[in-house]
GTPase Obg
Amino acid sequence: MFIDTAKVYIKSGNGGDGAISFRREKYVPLGGPDGGDGGNGGNVIIKVDTNITTLLDFKYTKKFIAENGVNGGTSKCFGKKGDDLIVKVPMGTIVKDVETDKIMADLSHPDDFFVVARGGKGGKGNVHFTTSTRQAPNFAEPGMPGEERWINLELKLLADVGLLGFPNVGKSTLLSRVTKAKPKIANYHFTTIKPNLGVVSVNGIQPFVMADIPGIIEGASEGVGLGLQFLRHIERTRLLIHVVDISGIEGRDPIEDFKKINEELKKYSVKLWDRPQIVAANKSDMLYEEEKYLEFEKAVKEMGYDKVFKISAGTGMGIDPLMKEAARILSTIPVTDLEISEEDMYVPEEKKFTYTIRKEAIDEDCDVYIVEGSFVDRLLYSVNVNEPHSLRYFHKVLKNKGVMDDLKEHGIKDGDVVRLNDFEFEYLL
């Protein structure tokens, strides 16, 4: 089974919490705090594995979650870092963020990898919060949460040459003739329902990779038939061989077929349409009127395509010159990575703890100002509001981070209530 797209959920590990601990040795009076830092959470890394050719594994496994960091320990011991999670994908995989549909990474080389979700940072132990006036802090910093998101994986085959054409024009037969690939071949439409790759190795030419991909039909650029699957896979090819059934035994007009395929290419991508193209007039052994081929050749050349080869994939006629010309053209085209515009590229946002403030009226004399958001969750998790030193630290953070100033701008007055999740306190000037 060939699977070339997959949607999966990934989550990096949370950072471990800093420890709240105090020295308790028998002969060390007033030992002080010794809580260690928490370990960082594990990353989720997408990595190329050249032994994998499809995204089939992701049909059965949809969630990938890295290991959390371990909490800090006593005696200033650091918590263990969470292990990274390596997710292996075939070469040619593109990673997209589902929410924005932006491209995060193009993994098109054997050693490529991408950190798709970074682990949360471990929190600091209470040993870091000592001051000249706070000798025994009874609070520590929590670990940062890991990143989580849904991603799309898209496989775009890495072939030098893509075979272009309607279904049942002989693309699979041509591939089987010039490579050791064994695609399914039969005399009906849509025989090929999955891409096939083969290495062309002909005496006197440099070997190259050729792909036989599901045939395209009218409307493919809008998703009709197997068209979008076809077009996705030829995006990376440097050269196209446009295979046309010249025999007319199915009652089709080869000139019209040639025009329609190129129209679909142009609708999907002008860059793809501009790619070098060799025309292979196939099934010429079944052609009884030579004038038909000459008429086709003239029409194609008038459209600007000079490379036209009369071949028969079934008998092997004319194939060697076709392959040698393909190799020659490839030698003049440099190998380049897939072009990704700035608009399509994913730009990660800087991770920030944020909050919002809203007001609710209780009565004429008192209002409640509700502060909520990730900043609030993290702050409350890191302090013990029932402990005096911890509570003073809590109010200091609110002041230093500008929350108090924001409350003033919202019109808070003496005696109003400030609520952060389940914790409330009265505001005093």
Notes: Residues 218 and 260 are 7 Å apart (CA to CA). The first helix runs from residue 171 to 178. The mean pLDDT is 83. The radius of gyration is 32 Å.
